Amino acid sequence: MDDIRFAVLGTGGIGRRTLEVSQHKDGLTAVAACDRNGVAIDHGGLDVDELLAATEGNIASGPQDDGPGDVATDGGAAAAKADGVKQHGDQSGIVASEQGEPTETPIDDIITESDAIDAVLLALPNLEHDFIPRVAERFAEADYEGVMIDVLKRSRVIGMLDDREDLLKESGITFVCGAGATPGFLTGAAALAAQSFVEVEEVEIWWGVGLKSGYEDNRGTVREDIAHLDGYDIETAREMSEEEIEELIDDHDGVLEFHDMEHADDVLLERAGICDAENVHVGGVLDVRSDEKPTTTTVSVTGTTFDGETGTNTFELDDVTSMEANVNGPALGYLKAGVRNNRAGHYGVFGPADLMPGF
Ligand SMILES: NC(=O)c1ccc[n+]([C@@H]2O[C@H](COP(=O)([O-])OP(=O)(O)OC[C@H]3O[C@@H](n4cnc5c(N)ncnc54)[C@H](O)[C@@H]3O)[C@@H](O)[C@H]2O)c1
């Protein structure tokens, strides 16, 4: 495949690692990146090492309204910003890089340059659920022709993207949704594991993440996960101060266990015709005080074969593979699959399971 020029929207924990991992993949050139305060664009290729060094421990996390059609996206807590934990006001994030320019319209600045961008990876917070669909809409309204890909988690967002499918198609956008680890990598694994069966009864996804050394860089993700705990929802998680989050983590000795999470693996497997969404269960364990995974990540697919046997196919990740490796490797892999489809004229909304063998 020809060289792919791509942009990253959001250079928090996930977006930074996307840039880093892309350096280990063939044919990918990062040409643009933005966060809530700034933008860096170089169509000849960004100096990724410099950008990573400048934003190390200095992520522009937290809410930002970047224009009229935008919303405050709270991925890393307004409170974190107020605490000055690792942000430095308007100087946080990309603007600390030699390549970064301050801007009040980071996403629009990238849209303006999008003719020369083949793919856009959205590593934006998703506590405002229609934020990513509305960003997609803005690209479509500007007649962007290319790939957009997100690593969002919540099931309800997929429908919001489907609602915009006609607009995306008209523009020539191939949108790959839910293409991180779960949903994403593990949804694709479930689709593959299902191929032994003619009928799938159940898909169980159980993940383990150890995040000690990556905790500072992944506060946005941890906050989103907290919304899945009993007694919490998106609103309460959004409003929590950093101290309240630390307190909650202390109360759990650093280990949070989640059951029946609203992860889009369910709707993504259903829309690919593999099984009903209600038969997909996602849970997992997050340890923010150890890099060791508290539990092994597994996908178990139970079904019946054409000749009447009932079995369970299991896909297991090695405990040494980090969350960042398992989100960004697949996201960039799906980005490449998206570009192949886009160049073949396949536009619209695709889930990770749609890019696997059919069922
Ligand atoms: N599918 C998976 O397996 C998986 C795993 C981990 C994280 N995620 C998702 O990845 C996303 C990013 O998580 P994170 O931990 O990197 O978050 P983060 O809070 O660390 O980073 C978010 C970034 O978005 C930027 N941003 C916020 N509002 C913006 C705006 N209006 N315009 C431009 N930039 C803006 C911030 O400045 C920051 O750079 C989340 O939605 C999370 O749920 C998915």
Automatic annotation (TrEMBL):
Catalysed conversion reaction: N(6)-[(2S,3R)-2-amino-8-carboxyoctan-3-yl]-L-lysyl-[protein] + CO2 + NAD(+) + H2O = (7R,8S)-8-amino-7-(carboxyamino)nonanoate + (S)-2-amino-6-oxohexanoyl-[protein] + NADH + 3 H(+); (8S)-8-amino-7-oxononanoate + L-lysyl-[protein] + NADH + H(+) = N(6)-[(2S,3R)-2-amino-8-carboxyoctan-3-yl]-L-lysyl-[protein] + NAD(+) + H2O; (8S)-8-amino-7-oxononanoate + L-lysyl-[protein] + CO2 = (7R,8S)-8-amino-7-(carboxyamino)nonanoate + (S)-2-amino-6-oxohexanoyl-[protein] + 2 H(+); N(6)-[(2S,3R)-2-amino-8-carboxyoctan-3-yl]-L-lysyl-[protein] + CO2 + NADP(+) + H2O = (7R,8S)-8-amino-7-(carboxyamino)nonanoate + (S)-2-amino-6-oxohexanoyl-[protein] + NADPH + 3 H(+)
Active site: residue positions: 153, 224, 228
Enzyme's top EC category: transferase
Residue numbers bearing the Allysine modification: 153
Pathway: Cofactor biosynthesis; biotin biosynthesis
Source organism, top-level taxon: Archaea
Keywords: Aminotransferase, Biotin biosynthesis, NAD, NADP, Nucleotide-binding, Transferase
GO MF entries: NAD binding; NADP binding; transaminase activity
Keyword Nucleotide-binding attributed: yes
Record region (Disordered): 58-105
Binding site for NAD(+): 10-14, 220-221
Gene Ontology biological process terms from the UniProt entry: biotin biosynthetic process
Biased composition (Low complexity): 65-82
EC number, as in UniProt: 2.6.1.121
Assembly with partners or alone: Monomer.
Function comment: A 'suicide' enzyme that participates in biotin synthesis. Catalyzes the formation of (S)-8-amino-7-oxononanoate (DAN-carbamic acid) from (7R,8S)-8-amino-7-(carboxyamino)nonanoate (DAN), a function equivalent to the cannonical BioA reaction and the first half-reaction of BioD. The cellular requirement for biotin is thought be low enough that this single turnover enzyme supplies a sufficient amount of the cofactor.
Other remarks in the entry: In cannonical biotin synthesis a pimeloyl-conjugate is transformed into biotin by the subsequent action of BioF, BioA, BioD and BioB. This enzyme replaces BioA and performs the first half-reaction of BioD.
Family, as annotated: Belongs to the BioU family.
Name of the protein described by the UniProt record: (S)-8-amino-7-oxononanoate synthase BioU
Gene that encodes it: bioU
